[in-house]
Structure to design on (236 residues):
């Protein structure tokens, strides 16, 4: 079960402040528990298998083909020499999202998950779980952006352009009008006149843009759940 990056971000943020329990007894609340729980969330095989202590855990993930021995976005980070307890050297393992955030359990706060408390510079080993990530859902480009791409020849010409645009979910006539406006120097803004029963989400779907983009285009709308019949809503 591959996850998007945003799903992984949300899941990790939801663990902050909690004690993450693994089913393998002695690891309940310890640093490897967060990794085990993440493996289960990602759909990795046998997420709660005993794979040794923290300092050996990533090596086992590599041997089992669960992780890759390279840098990546979703990183499992290991330090094999964090200190000693009773004369025994212990390691530590945590999760790092490249250039975004890090998450550890039983680090800054005993038996709890914390965020941005473990510097990446403390790493001695890094493996990645990117094979379980789909990536982010791409944001649909605005009609004006597509029109500008048409102008520079990205979409080809004539029938080819129309076929490609429509296959990508854009209205050819709308794009062509905006292209003409760009060439003539006219405003490229496009508006929808609100009718009875309209909602912003429905308008966004009609013009094939995201609700977030529609809200961004209309800062005058203070309550996204309230729009008036006859009101002009900018859609591009």
């Amino acid at each position: 079960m591959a996850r998007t990056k945003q799903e992984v971000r949300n899941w990790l943020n939801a663990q902050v402040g909690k004690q993450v329990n693994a089913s393998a007894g002695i690891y309940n609340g310890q640093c490897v528990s967060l990794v085990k729980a993440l493996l289960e969330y990602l759909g990795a095989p046998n997420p709660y298998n005993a794979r040794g202590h923290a300092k050996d855990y990533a090596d086992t993930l590599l041997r089992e083909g669960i992780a890759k021995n390279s840098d990546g976005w979703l990183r499992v980070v290991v330090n094999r020499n964090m200190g000693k307890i009773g004369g025994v050297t212990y390691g530590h393992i945590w999760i790092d999202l490249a250039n975004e955030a890090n998450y550890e359990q039983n680090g800054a706060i005993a038996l709890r998950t914390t965020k941005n408390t473990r510097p990446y510079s403390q790493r001695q080993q890094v493996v990645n779980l990117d094979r379980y990530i789909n990536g982010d859902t791409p944001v649909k480009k605005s009609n004006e952006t597509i029109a500008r791409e048409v102008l520079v020849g990205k979409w080809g010409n004539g029938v080819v352009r129309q076929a490609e645009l429509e296959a990508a979910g854009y209205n050819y006539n709308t794009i062509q009008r905006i292209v003409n406006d760009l060439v003539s120097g006219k405003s490229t803004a496009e508006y929808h006149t609100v009718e009875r029963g309209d909602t912003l989400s429905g308008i966004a779907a009609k013009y094939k843009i995201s609700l977030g983009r529609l809200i961004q285009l209309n800062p005058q709308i203070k309550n996204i759940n309230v729009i008036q019949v006859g009101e002009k809503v900018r859609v591009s």
